[in-house]
Design brief:
Blueprint: H1 12-25, E1 34-37, H2 43-46, E2 58-63, H3 67-79, E3 84-87, E4 103-107, E5 114-117, E6 122-125, H4 131-140
Parallel strand pairs: 2-4, 3-4
Antiparallel strand pairs: 1-2, 5-6
Length: about 150
């Protein structure tokens, strides 16, 4: 089922969707994850963006605390046919995101881990790492980024 709206409009279907997300998704998340719905205190933090230029429109945000929270959010969004976006920083300056309306934003900052294996000279990073954090971590080990391996 598609939901009309965007640009902050509220209709019966969108209101129902927000209440459903609040009720259904919250029970799937860990106790340390934070779910906020558009209009609630704290939503501005998960909805923050470098620019309002051609921005997507989110109706809910999840600050994940672990990988399971990210997986549960994606699975829930797919089950309910709700668009979703994972993000780490606030730039999201890709204009193609403007097509994403009435979506769930998944704030990945809770997964900002860096592990270094000196024997392999390899870093494993979490999905919440910003480019600056990654660059600083590699530089601190005398390394530079030459190739990023796929996420497994």
């Amino acid at each position: 089922m598609a939901y009309s709206g965007g640009e902050g409009s509220e209709d019966a279907g969108l209101g129902y969707l927000k209440r459903s997300i609040q009720f259904e998704l919250k029970r799937r998340l860990s106790s340390k994850a934070k779910l906020v719905i558009e209009g609630e205190d704290g939503f501005q933090h998960v909805n923050a963006r470098y620019s309002d230029y051609k921005r997507p429109w989110y109706i809910a945000g999840v600050r994940v605390a672990n990988e399971a929270d990210a997986i549960e959010t994606v699975n829930y969004a797919r089950l309910r046919n709700i668009p979703f976006v994972a993000r780490t920083g606030g730039h999201s300056l890709t204009t193609s995101l403007r097509r994403i309306q009435n979506a769930i934003v998944i704030d990945m900052r809770g997964l900002n881990t860096i592990k270094y294996d000196a024997s392999k000279q390899q870093m494993t990073i979490g999905g919440g790492i910003t480019t600056g954090e990654f660059a600083n971590a590699t530089f601190s080990k005398g390394m530079e980024v030459s190739k990023c391996l796929p996420i497994v």
